[in-house]
Specification:
By secondary structure, the chain is α/β, with parallel strands linked by helices. The protein is built from 12 helices and 10 strands. It folds into 2 domains: 262 residues, Rossmann fold (3-Layer(aba) Sandwich), CATH 3.40.50; 45 residues, no CATH class. A hairpin with a 4-residue loop joins strand 4 and strand 5.
Length: 343
């Protein structure tokens, strides 16, 4: 006898109210980076603050779709990581926040506009599509600046799109980078903080969303009972939503970021949040080797609680100089492609 799986939804909230799905709009046409490197001076509200570099994809959001919206525009749909709003609101008070993505400049602007206006409720800046259209027609757009944001062509593209921190022009002992991917950490390992990637199961959520959308359409949210394969889809969807809602990775970083922000030497303070084996990351032969255990298992890791005694200061290995020279040469080439500042 085949046993029938039954499932009754208890939630009265549709999927997209439980997980924040945001749509952002940008220009279809790619354009040069907005900011020159090194970056312009800190904005008045950030003067004297340390700098926090935040990755975007899989750190703050997960993009699930792109669609043409006409002759000149495109839309992106993305899930916002749980607690991203609270996280960004707090770190904005503690740091000069710089966003840095390996995505294109147009994608970066679209996401930045959504984060600024829809998430943080800030006045729109020139990342907004209407402001970009004004500039494209030769007009004068808003001069409002909420954040600096950098994109793909401002990385070391020949080094797997490495976000090389010296390019920013900020004191390195006053900079922290948070990223789900360690590819940007190898040459400044004491500045990097790895976060677990935010990876919703798109297939499960898509199947679940179709059912929930029908419930909303017919005013039957949480009222139906399901059997068989439909019940499995609902159950898997509810489990995936619960898994994502339990994601506290961003807020778990707040104690460490608060502690670092109050220090004059952020990298030294981060040494209080590392395990003893982290000194293996001082050897760039290990961190630059994508197959090494040091890079895969240690690089970027931080403790959940501060230790009283920090790990020893960074010890430059004899081969590190060669890696740094190569990266600095690539940085100079990038800076030769001078992009006038928007300020």
């Amino acid at each position: 006898m085949v046993r029938t799986t039954r499932f009754s939804r208890n939630s009265s909230k549709p999927l997209f109210q439980q997980l924040q799905l945001i749509t952002s709009y940008g220009l279809f046409q790619e354009y040069p980076p907005i900011w020159s490197l090194p970056l312009p001076p800190q904005q008045p509200r950030d003067t004297g603050k340390p700098t926090l570099v935040l990755d975007i994809d899989e750190t703050l959001i997960h993009t699930v779709g792109m669609r043409n919206e006409g002759s000149d525009s495109v839309s992106f749909s993305f899930f916002l990581r749980p607690h991203a709003k609270e996280f960004l609101a707090e770190v904005r008070e503690l740091y000069e926040v710089v966003f840095w993505t390996a995505g294109t400049a147009s994608y970066c602007s679209a996401v930045m506009d959504a984060l600024e206006v829809q998430v943080l409720q800030l006045p729109r800046s020139f990342y907004n599509i209407d402001e970009l259209r004004v500039e494209a027609r030769g007009g004068i757009s808003t001069k409002n600046v909420n954040f600096y944001a950098l994109s793909r062509t401002q990385t070391l593209q020949g080094h797997n799109y490495m976000k090389y921190l010296p390019m920013l022009g900020r004191p390195l002992n006053r900079v922290i980078m948070v990223d789900d991917n360690v590819r940007s950490f190898p040459l400044h390992p004491r500045n990097g903080v790895k976060i677990e990637p935010f990876l919703p199961n798109e297939r499960v959520l898509s199947e679940y969303a179709r059912i929930v959308t029908d419930e909303v359409k017919y005013g039957q949210v949480g009222q139906r009972q399901y059997e068989g394969e439909m019940a499995k889809v609902i159950e898997c969807g509810e489990e995936e939503v619960a898994r994502l809602q339990a994601d506290h990775a961003l807020m778990d970083l707040i104690p460490m970021l608060r502690s670092a922000a109050s220090s004059t030497d952020l990298t030294h303070e981060l040494d209080h949040w590392r395990t003893d084996e982290y000194t293996k990351c001082d050897d760039f032969r290990e961190t630059m080797n994508s197959l090494s255990v040091t890079r895969q298992k240690i690089l970027g890791n931080v403790l959940k609680e501060r230790r009283n005694v920090p790990i020893p200061p960074l010890k430059q290995h004899v081969m590190n100089h060669g890696f740094m020279e190569e990266a600095n040469a690539a940085m100079k080439l990038e800076q030769m492609r001078h992009t006038p500042s928007r300020l």
